[in-house]
Structure formats: C-alpha cells, structure tokens
C-alpha cells in the first residue's frame, strides 16, 4: 500500500504544482511529501519532476506515469468500495481517445455534459486520428471509426457512419460531374489520409477500387471539408461532417449510384476496465448519445459553418 500512498502524493504534487501546497492539502509535512516522491522516483528509476527555485514541472516520465497513477488509485478505491458494499456517487478518472472532427462537432459536447452530471469524475481526452489499441496505449475507452480489432478488447457499436462523395457546385460547373468511379482519374481529389490511397465503391457487378493521386491529402476532416467547400475537388466525407453543407446546397453528392462502404462509430474498452462504474456509465452515455439517432441526424451539436 506504500506505493498507492506514494501515487496519491504524486498526483497531489502534480495538481498543486508544488511540494508545500501538496503537503498542506494532504495534511502532512513537506518533508514527508519529498520522501514519498523520492521513493516513487527510485521505483520508477527516473525523475518525475523537474525541480528549481522558480517552478516545479513534470518530466516526460512523470507525464507518462500520471494517467496510470490516477487509474491505479481510483481502481483501488473502487475495489474497496465494492468489497464494502458502499453505494457512492460516481467518481474516478477516465482516459479516453477520440477522433478530431467528431469530437469538435459532436463528441466534445457529449463529454462535457457527462462531466456536468458527474462532478466527481475527471477525464484525460486525447485526440488521435488513427487506430489505437486501448490496452497498449493505456485508455479506458477508445472512440473511433476506422476498422480495427484487438485481443482482450470489447467492441461496442454506437452507430453506422454513412460516407459519400461530394463536391461544390462551382467545381462541378468547371470540371463536370463524374458518371462512374473510373472517371475520378480526370478529377481533382481530396483525400482523408488515414483511410488510405484507395477509394472503394460498390458497383452493380461488385466492388470498384480506385487508386487516388490526391490534390490534397490530410488527416483532418475540417481541412477536407473547407477545401471541398472552396471548390478544390471531390472528397469522400462522413455524414456528420457533410450533412449541414449538403442541406445548405454548398456541397452536392456525386456518384450516388455507387455506394461507399460505411464505417461504424465504435467504442473499444479493455475487458479489464469494463467492471468499473465510471467506464460503464460513460459507455451507456455514449450509446444514448448515438442511438436511436446520432446527433447530426437530430441536428444537434453538429455541423460546421463555412469559413470566411
């Protein structure tokens, strides 16, 4: 249990920004705080804080340890609470991975409301646009859209995510409208880099794969949308990004007779975390957020204004 006590002290120092403030908050002497941090640094074989007369800051090792320390402390508290049959307000720390555009348009608001309802819950929200193994990278929940599966991880589908090829009317007036996916070779293409350099469509005789040499390649959906709005080319965009622009007539669909395989928005949770009340609560919250209709279908907290 000394390690747990040391972790609590480490968290307090990181939050307070000084040994003396953490000592006052914990009701112990500053020398005890120093001793506990020294013990933790000895166990970690690394310095956790950069100390100077002016400031105290986490080292890179300290920054990597802090989320894990929070999870361990909260897990121990959860275990004791469960063993003693205590019914208490939801509390603890969550580390979550989310995609950029979905978070900016919809998910950020949902997470903010969750924290409002559960004031004793804290979160690290990390924005990453690539597949992430939550076990390897230390996440409680990973929200994503790209197909990926991992051993020891629960996959909870939140909602299907339709995708469509779109362009601005000004672009189509200048360059013409493609009638078949193979016509894209003669067009300027705007590509979402994480999905790769091949666009796949479903034709009457099976899948049609088109290798793209994009005019623009980006891992940010906002950049892709803005470029399409300015008439720079044809893009494949997800419904939550493009529905508003389609409704306003700023973008139009192309190649509608050739369906694009849809993705699923999913929450990935390590099996070792599924028993935690705060993880269960957030997973339920996300399911309610995206079912039976996702926010963009309800016209809530989604959409992006045209940049000036």
Tell me what you see in this structure.
The protein has 308 residues and is an alpha/beta fold. The chain has 3 domains: 2-66, Winged helix-like DNA-binding domain superfamily/Winged helix DNA-binding domain (Arc Repressor Mutant, subunit A); 91-160 and 263-298, Periplasmic binding protein-like II (D-Maltodextrin-Binding Protein, domain 2, 3-Layer(aba) Sandwich); 163-254, D-Maltodextrin-Binding Protein, domain 2 (3-Layer(aba) Sandwich), CATH 3.40.190.290. Helices cover 41% and strands 24% of the residues. It has helices at residues 2-16, 19-26, 30-44, 60-83, 100-117, 134-137, 169-175, 221-229, 239-247, 277-290, 295-298; strands at 49-51, 56-58, 91-98, 120-127, 141-144, 153-161, 163-167, 189-192, 198-203, 206-211, 216-218, 234-238, 252-254, 263-270. Strands 4-3-5-14-6 form a 5-stranded mixed beta sheet, with helices on both faces. Strand 3, helix 5 and strand 4 (120-127) form a beta-alpha-beta unit. Helix 1 packs across helix 2 (19-26) and helix 1 (2-16) packs across helix 4. Residues 303-308 have low confidence and may be disordered.
Secondary-structure topology with pairs:
Elements (H helix, E strand, L loop, with lengths): L1 H15 L2 H8 L3 H15 L4 E3 L4 E3 L1 H24 L7 E8 L1 H18 L2 E8 L6 H4 L3 E4 L8 E9 L1 E5 L1 H7 L13 E4 L5 E6 L2 E6 L4 E3 L2 H9 L4 E5 H9 L4 E3 L8 E8 L6 H14 L4 H4 L10
Parallel strand pairs: 3-4, 3-5, 8-11, 8-12
Antiparallel strand pairs: 1-2, 5-14, 6-14, 7-12, 7-13, 9-10
Helix pairs in contact: 1-2, 1-3, 1-4, 2-3
């Amino acid at each position: 249990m000394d390690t747990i006590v040391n972790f609590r002290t480490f968290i307090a120092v990181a939050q307070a920004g000084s040994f003396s403030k953490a000592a006052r908050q914990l009701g112990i002497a500053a020398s005890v705080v120093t001793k506990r941090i020294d013990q933790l640094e000895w166990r970690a074989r690394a310095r956790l804080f950069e100390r100077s007369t002016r400031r105290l800051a986490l080292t890179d090792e300290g920054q990597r340890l802090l989320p894990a320390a929070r999870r361990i402390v909260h897990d121990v508290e959860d275990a004791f609470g469960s063993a003693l049959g205590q019914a208490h307000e939801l509390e603890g720390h969550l580390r979550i991975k989310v995609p950029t555009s979905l978070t900016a348009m919809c998910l950020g608001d949902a997470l903010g409301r969750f924290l409002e309802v559960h004031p004793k819950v804290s979160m690290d929200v990390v924005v990453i646009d690539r597949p992430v193994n939550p076990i390897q990278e230390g996440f409680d929940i990973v929200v994503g859209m790209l197909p990926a599966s991992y051993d020891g991880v629960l996959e909870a589908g939140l909602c299907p995510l339709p995708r469509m090829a779109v362009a601005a009317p000004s672009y189509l007036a200048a360059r013409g409208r493609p009638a078949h996916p193979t016509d894209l070779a003669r067009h300027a293409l705007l590509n979402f880099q994480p999905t790769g350099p091949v666009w796949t469509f479903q034709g009457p005789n099976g899948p049609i794969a088109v290798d793209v040499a994009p005019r623009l390649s980006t891992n940010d959906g906002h950049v892709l949308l803005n470029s399409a709005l300015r008439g720079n080319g044809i893009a494949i965009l997800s419904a939550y990004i493009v529905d508003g622009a389609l409704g306003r007539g700023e973008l139009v669909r192309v190649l509608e007779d050739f369906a694009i395989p849809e993705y699923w928005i999913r929450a990935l949770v390590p099996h070792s975390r599924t028993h935690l009340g705060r993880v269960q609560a957030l997973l339920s919250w996300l399911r309610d957020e995206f079912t039976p209709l996702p926010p963009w279908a309800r016209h809530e907290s989604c959409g992006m204004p045209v940049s000036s």
